[in-house]
Structure formats: structure tokens, C-alpha cells
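Let's sit down with a protein and look at its sequence and fold side by side. Once you have written the record down, we can walk along the chain together.
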Amino acid sequence: MERKKKIEEEVERTLNVLGGIENVDVNPFLYTRVKAKLQENESTENKPSGALVFKLGLIILLFAFNIFTIVNSESRADQVTSVTQQYLQELGNEYNLYESNYYSYNIE
């Protein structure tokens, strides 16, 4: 019961404090200044920042590098394939692997 009484007293004191609040005198041009500041912020938000432009440029550069690498790897694969085929041809010629007339040898 005593606890409830303390809570009611605290509520009463809080309400009395709130009743004593007076309006604050405000500069008459405050609204105009706040509105001008908001419009200034809106105009700067429309411009891309330097960090955004840098990131976008970096992404484009990485895509270009990937495309360049893919194109060069395909041409290099053709070169490697032709060199490999040439090496196998020379190896076959050296060991006579491509002799088509196996039965023409004289077996005695």
C-alpha cells in the first residue's frame, strides 16, 4: 500500500513539473533557415559522390579485364592445341607409329 502511495506522489510531482513548462521564444527566421538547409541537402544528394564514381569505374575495369583474359585464353588454347598436335606428329614420325603397312615386313 505504501508503495502505491509513493508511485502516486511521484506521478503528481512529474505532472506538476510538466505543468510549469513555458513556450520558448524562437527566432522568427528559424523555419526559413531549416527549409533552406533541407533544400541544400536535397540538391547535393542528386550528385554522385566521388567514391561511387570510383567504385563504378573499378567494376567496369574488372569486367573489361575479364573479357580481355577470356578472349586471349581462347586464342592461346588454339596455339597450344596446334603445338601439341605438331609435337605428337613429330613423335609419331620418330617412332614410326603411323606406318600403315604393318604386314609388308618380311618375316623369315
Summary: Helices lie at 2-19, 30-45, 50-94.
